[in-house]
Amino acid sequence: MVNNRLNLILAQIRQAEVAYHRKPGSVLLLAVSKTKTAKDIAEAYQAGQRHFGENYSQEALKKQQELGAYDITWHFIGPIQSNKTKALALHFDWVHSVDSFKIAKRLSEQRPVSLPPLNICLQVNISGEQSKSGITLNELPQLCELVAALPNIKLRGVMAVPMPEEDFDLQRQPYKTLYEAVAKLNNPELDTYSFGMSGDLNAAIAEGATIVRIGTALFGAREYT
Ligand SMILES: *Cc1c(COP(=O)(O)O)cnc(C)c1O
Q1: Which of 5, 32, 212 to mutate to test the pocket of ligand 1 (most atoms within 8 A of CB)?
Q2: N or C end: fewer C-beta atoms under 10 angstroms in the chain?
Q3: How far, in Å, are 40, 49, 65, 222 from residue 225 at the CA level?
Q4: What is the pLDDT of residues 98-131, one digit of tens each?
Q5: Which atom of ligand 1 is nearest to the CA of 97?
Q6: Which regions in the chain score pLDDT beneath 70?
Q7: Assessment of whether the complete model's pTM goes beyond 0.85
Q8: 137 alpha carbon to ligand 1 midpoint, in Å?
Q9: Spatial distance between the Cα atoms of 100 and 123, rounded to a whole number of angstroms
């Protein structure tokens, strides 16, 4: 089941790369496994998936323990509370949802020097929704500069979760705006655009996504208890 879905999504990603003149293989699939079990992750792993994304640190740590023998790259994509930064700094390879200097600094201080630098993306609230976390586009240049100077973390790019839209052109717009804002910074270290979910991955790939974060299309609908 997961195997079939994984192959369908990978085919869709490869097709979108061709359709939008992206380099073949330039878009990474991040399997978003929040609320799913270690068994679900293991199934996707057996089918070849290596990158997994989680939103809740306690839930993630439990699964990481169960899956200790697996060679998984773990991405954190959920809202970050200051008291959770240590767990993230110790147990993840990537954090996509950094939205303040304070959080970046804590991750930098708490990342063990024995580990490779923690890969960081800044989350940008590109649709300007009150309810969403993320910095504004105006804050991006200065925060990039400050975060890039911190040790033990490596600023890789941006993450966005735009307002859901049905229309393809409306889906593309916020990604295009953010892509252009990052391009203007002219920083070759910024190579990551964490854009796109199950409902808008084609639009995200059209506008430069290098990581698409897919949950529902891969694992089915989430059940919250
Ligand atoms: C849950 C989640 C996803 C996956 O969303 P789907 O619509 O299930 O593909 C992607 N990104 C973030 C930040 C999420 O919280």
Answers
A1: 32
A2: C
A3: 17, 26, 22, 10
A4: 999 999 999 999 999 999 999 999 999 998 777 7
A5: 13
A6: 225
A7: yes
A8: 21
A9: 9
Nearest to 96 by CA among 73, 120, 125, 124: 120
Residues spanned by the domain of 25 = 2-216
Residue 183, domain member (yes or no): yes
The 8-class DSSP code of residue 135 comes to B
Dihedral in degrees, nearest 10, Cα atoms 21, 196, 160, 48:
-100
Number of domains in the chain: 1
Q: Indicate whether 222 belongs to any domain.
A: no
At 149-168, the pLDDT tens digits run: 999 999 999 999 999 999 99
Residue with tokens 């939103």: 55
Please check whether residue 79 is in contact with residue 106, taking contact to mean a CB–CB distance below 8 angstroms: no
